[in-house]
Amino acid sequence: MANDAVDPARRRLLAGTAGALGGVGLAATAVPFISSMQPSAKTQAAGAPVEVDISKLAPGELMVVEWRRRPVWVFRRTQEELDNLAKVPADALRDPDSAESEQPPYAKNPHRSIKPEYLVMLGVCTHLGCSPQLRAEPGELGADWLGGFLCPCHGGRYDLAGRVFKGVPPPLNMAVPPHKYLSDTRIVIGEDQETA
Ligand code: FES
Where in the sequence is the domain holding 16, given as residue range(s)? Predict the structure, then answer.
């Protein structure tokens, strides 16, 4: 109950904005997939790649940007969080190697990202599309909790790489969108990193 009143994870959540989208706000929890079948200039703009400045993102912080009308998280993991991620037992996860889940080939690794420190991921639960919350503190959701994400709708649990645990409703790991680095502090969401 106390956690509901003051959520320490929320204090660390930065509302990011993307240049092309200005100050578009994000819906609170439920994120519908397709809201309109009618393409428009606005819709096309929403589908364009989005450039994000991550220079002010401190370790342990998560920022949200909108891409294709969906929330994309950029989560800068601390070394401790990366260490905890490495301790998650593979047999506790439904798809530990992300074999069934959606991500570009360059993010198909244990940390599910190009650089271990930065996780770029669609903040959308793979069950029914709610927006999970960061619960980074070990022990926060039980003695064996090493930090991760909790979906408030039906209790979906994911580790700090968005890999879903067994025994909860979501069928897959959260999706990683195409993205690439322009520099150490600028990324583009919606375009793939060169692989050749
Ligand atoms: S929508 Fe996330 S657990 Fe159901």
Answer: 2-23+45-189
